[in-house]
Write a structure and sequence with these properties.
Shape: globular
Strand order of the largest sheet: 3-4-2-5-1-6-7
Low-confidence stretches: 1-7
Distance between the termini: 18 Å
């Protein structure tokens, strides 16, 4: 995916990203064997690799394609919640404490896209979350659930979501993430029985030759 200023216009898809998003979505749903009922987590090795932007843009693309999607901000850093200015709204923390879906799912300015923000900052103890129960509950309201998760190397949440869901998409910052860090993240996933890696998104790739030439290589 190319670098964008998506954070300035969080509910729009930059034109230069449209083709990349389509390719990623096609491959994701191919990995899921065409399932209509999908729950997938998104995580990076460490913070700052663009996971929140990737999740939101893919969810927007789904909504544009008449595939209603709920995105859950399950990262204590509250990146998605802050991006969409949903601080103070009930959300994920309250959901795992027993709140109803109606209390935690919020509409956005885009039809087909709803958000469960992070909720109370003292929020969720991720190590205690019953992910299978939570995902089953959220999927009562939609067929596609994406989770914005904390980095693999800072929490076990990504590995546990991977095991409880259809799998995990690993976001890697191009020209930034060191190979040894990425290797450590993949090894961490492998240590958790049942973890499923659906694929990797290379975020922020720069084209050093004209884009059309890449198609000829």
């Amino acid at each position: 995916m190319n670098k964008t200023k998506a954070s300035r216009f969080p509910l729009t898809i930059p034109a230069q990203m449209a083709d990349d998003l389509q390719v990623i979505r096609d491959r994701l749903f191919l990995e899921l064997e065409g399932k209509d009922d999908v729950a997938a987590g998104f995580a990076s090795s460490v913070h700052g690799e663009g996971t929140t932007t990737v999740v939101l843009q893919l969810a927007l693309a789904n909504a544009n394609d008449n595939r209603p999607t709920v995105v859950v901000d399950a990262d204590p850093q509250m990146g998605l919640t802050k991006l969409l200015r949903m601080e103070g709204k009930t959300g994920f923390a309250e959901l795992i404490a027993g709140a109803s879906l109606a209390e935690v799912i919020h509409q956005t300015g885009r039809e087909g896209l709803r958000i469960i923000p992070s909720g109370a900052p003292n929020g969720a103890q991720l190590s205690a979350v019953e992910w299978t129960r939570i995902l089953t509950k959220v999927k009562q309201s939609t067929k596609i659930v994406f989770l914005d998760l904390p980095p693999i190397l800072s929490s076990t949440a990504a590995s546990r979501v991977s095991a409880a869901s259809d799998g995990l998409v690993l976001v890697v910052a191009a020209h930034k993430t060191r190979r040894v860090v990425l290797k450590s993240a993949v090894e961490e996933l492998k240590r958790h029985h049942g973890s499923k890696l659906l694929g990797t998104v290379l975020n922020g790739r720069e084209y050093f030759i004209p884009n059309f030439l890449y198609k000829l290589i």
